[in-house]
Amino acid sequence: MSNTAAAPSPKKSGWSDFEPGPALRGAIIAVGVTLTSASLIAVTRALAGVVPDHGGAHSLAVILHLATVVPCLPLGAWLLLKRKGTPQHKALGKIWLVLMVLTALSAVFIRQLNNGSFSPIHLFVPLTIWGAWQAIATARAGNIAKHRQGLIRFYLGALTIPGVLSFLPGRMMWAWLIG
Question: Is residue 147 part of a domain?
Fold first, then answer.
């Protein structure tokens, strides 16, 4: 029997080692609160019938898209800001990813902006599917730092950029919020 001890393994990083700093937390909160509030106000106004009719607003794709993306805004922020690695975090994270993929897939069928063709915003469809796959792959591989960094980018990119673009003048969400 050998008396040599095995070399100590490097410390495996836990979820608590990867908390966002104040600026990043502020950005996540700002995006979550602003886009969630604007979306809820717009959708509520549309459901109440106090907004002008907007082209394809009644299509199944638009309804599915809104029903999946609106919950992603606060849920994603909550997941990024609360304690990670818990069974609740993992379960809600899976729900969030499914909602994001459904949001992306439903967007394929929303083409009113470009006369039935794809528009530049559709570039977020493959990016979202790739981001969801990366989130799963990095978590399963135990690369929590890459998982966390990817999901922060995913949230701030795949939700924020198209979210802000959806509120530009002339777009349906703009009409619902302002019109």
Answer: yes
